[in-house]
Amino acid sequence: MDVLDVALRLVAVLVVFLTFPLLVGQTEHKVMAHMQGRVGPMYAGGFHGWAQLVADGVKFAQKEDVVPDGADRRIFQLAPAVALLPYLLVLIVIPFGPDGGVGQEIDAGIFFVLAVMGAGVLGSLMGGWASANKFSLLGGLRTTAQLIAYELPMLLAAASVAMAAGTLSLPGIVESFEWWWVPWQIIGALVFFIAGLAELQRPPFDAPVADSEIIFGAYTEYTGLRFALFLLAEYAGIVVLCGLTTVLFLGGWHGPFAEDGMGWVWTLLKAAILAFVVIWLRVSYPRLREDQIMRFAWTTLVPLALFQIALTGVVKVVIQ
Amino acid sequence: MTLAAAHPGFLSPTGVEIVFVLVGIATLAAAVVTVTTSKLVHAALWLVAALGGIAVEYLLLTAEFIAWVQVLIYVGSVVVLLLFGLMLTKAPIVPTVPRGHPSYGALRAEAREAADSGNRWPALAVALAAAATLVTVVVDAFRSSWIDVDRSVQGSAGVTGEVLFQHWVLPFEALSVLLLAALVGAIILSRKGGADAGEPAQGTEPGQGAGQGEQPGPTAGREEQG
User: Fold this and answer.
1) Residue B156 falls within a domain, yes or no?
2) Which residues contact A163 (CB under 8 A, 6 or more apart)?
3) Any transmembrane segments, and where (chain B) (predicted)?
């Protein structure tokens, strides 16, 4: 692998990182609007308001970057980068096509992905604490509690699919995928997707940023570009979560005509459908209360994930 | 880890070795700041830097799997749990008055005073003794082993799994029983704290036991899962 190849791959990942979250965001604008009987943004850019998020970005860049007087300046300023960068790192290792269609193949890719995604929550924590604002601190605490609760089922579900495939490498998992894995791993898939939603603080698990209770949680004091970076992190997180669920549980590039070099279309299509589901859930579900969120993780998702692991183990032994 | 026929020596270091030493120095510096800073949350964040540095060292030694597990368990879970605990305590954080305020300096000094512990020197002695013991033992144990970082990956998931579950299965199982005991113990401790309503069972955070005692079962258990 020469330098040019590596540079090209990294540039491609960066482009995906900068465009896909915006695509998801714009889709959310329009899909939410239509589900609610509105039309959403219609003017920016002319055709159905396609440039609305670009306009939003310009607006954010123009705003003053305020750091509260009592805030811990450096940590406050560092937090958005800590929240955003892990998703960029994760995107590098998510495979979208067969035969090297991945930024960089990593031997223990599934561990890398989960480890780095877990580290991203430090950004919200740092922002929540450093803002010197009680709502921010409450948001940070809720974020932490939620992360601690939902990382376990997420890990267990991922472990189940790694057991099924017999490898920790993400491309390796997709390569050994068979269609009957979908019913076999369906519980794990649901647990993984729901836990991922909770880690991203997406509705119905958005109590850490519940506007009617604690303003905007850890992000209350942020303005301008730093606020935009936190928002970008959320949408980059959606892209990463949908990509990962596709790769781990839905067979990635497998599908009709996948052999003719159309595999990457399948990956993108499956991820896009999942992103649509994420948006759909936001429109259709009310926010869970904080204690409901905790109880759901510990009494529903963890036992389900453990059951999935047991099922995977039994089936794996039987078919061998 | 393989025993090389000829020891390559420490003169004329390779690029990896230089990077290893530099990352090691940065890690050590972060660790020192962790225990010397007066702001508790800063200490936890410097701990993230130190643990991340150790993960990089593992990577440089081609122990990829261990490196990711290090990040996943320590940075992603243990430090997050630690921060959660710190945020629940009334830690001496930044003064509540703005920077230019007349009493800012006094409040800041007070906060530093509160963060100081009288056990500073015994703690230093214990830390130095522990470090000396560990360094002596590790250096003595691995004096003659040499990892060829260029030739093959010796810490991949496959290799680690084989070593762990073929040669070291008994210690592994003993450790898992130990962790299970710790998990059960944590649940029992937290139950007791909840029943007494405000009596801190932990005893380490006076006055904050009630806040932590309400629902620590899951959070306390999470650490042991790691």
Assistant:
1) no
2) A309, A312, A313, A316
3) 18-36, 43-61, 67-89, 121-142, 168-189
d(CA A181, CA A40): 39
The answer to the question of residue B226 being in a domain is yes
Over residues B18-59, the pLDDT tens digits come to 888 889 999 999 988 888 777 777 888 889 889 989 988 888
With respect to residue B200, please indicate whether it lies within any of the assigned structural domains. Answer: yes
Which residues constitute the domain of residue B182?
A: 168-226
Say what the pTM is.
0.80
Residue B183: Cβ-neighbour burial (10 angstroms; 0-12, 13-18, 19+): middle
Q: Which domain holds residue A119?
A: 3-319
In this predicted structure, what is the pLDDT of residue A61? 86
Return phi, psi of residue B6, to 5°. -115, 130
Model confidence at B91: pLDDT above 70: no
User: Is residue B133 in a domain?
Assistant: no
A contact set with B (CB within 8 A): 69-70, 72, 75, 106-108, 111-112, 114-116, 118-119, 121-122, 125-126, 128-130, 132, 137, 140-141, 144-145, 147-149, 151-152, 155, 168, 294, 297-298
pLDDT, average across residues A114-141: 83
- Asked if pLDDT for residue B202 goes beyond 60, the answer is no
User: In chain B, how many domains are there?
Assistant: 1
Mean pLDDT, chain A, whole residue set: 85
